[in-house]
Every structure is written in structure tokens, then in C-alpha cells.
Amino acid sequence: MTPSRPCPPVPSATDPLILRVDLAGCTGKAELLDRFAAALHFPAWFGHNWDALADLLCDLSWLPASARHLVLSGPSGLRTADPDSHATLLEILDDSIAYWSGTSTPLSVAIEESGRSDDPDA
To answer: Could you tell me the CATH number of the domain that includes residue 72?
Structure first.
């Protein structure tokens, strides 16, 4: 039995949705996928693999908003412990950003290292 997840935040139709994924202490793929599932309130049927992550980041129908801004904090541990998973995550995020660009509901991603955002607009 899959435990239920808390309900996702409900922004107004004109407000952007800011979602934070805390990656501090994350050292591998399974934990990374679990953290994304929790932070983005993935449906219970999330498959916990790269393809499922990519699919859901190009869906996001359960998170209606005028725009979605994803903030990844503390990814340095993952980058050190599992550089392949870190690289795969960045590829999936790039593809997801490209998918949503030019739509009425864009996706942006900022990366915060030690409390500092690498996104100048964040």
C-alpha cells in the first residue's frame, strides 16, 4: 500500500508556483527520486525511475499554476556521491524546461548551493 502524500499547494490561476526540492544529504538516485516525489506531490503511481521523472515533469497537471519555479537546494552531496545521477537529473530538467518554454505555463529551475541561488532571477 502506497502512503498518501499531502495535498499539493493550490496557487491562484495567476500566481506562479514555487516548489523546493531539498537535496542536502542526498547521495543517490533512489533518494533523489523520493525527494522529487514528495516535494512535487507526484501521483502515487510514480514509477521511481528516470523515465517516470521525465514524464511527470512534462505533465504537472496536478499542479495548476501560471508558471512553475523549481528550486533545488543543496545538490553538492549528490554531485559528489553520484555524479551520473546528478548529470541525468540535469539533462531531464533541461528537457523539461525546453518542453514548457513558449507555453502559457513555463517551468524554470534554480539551483541553490549552500543557501545561495545560482539563478540570478531567484
So the answer is: 3.30.370.10
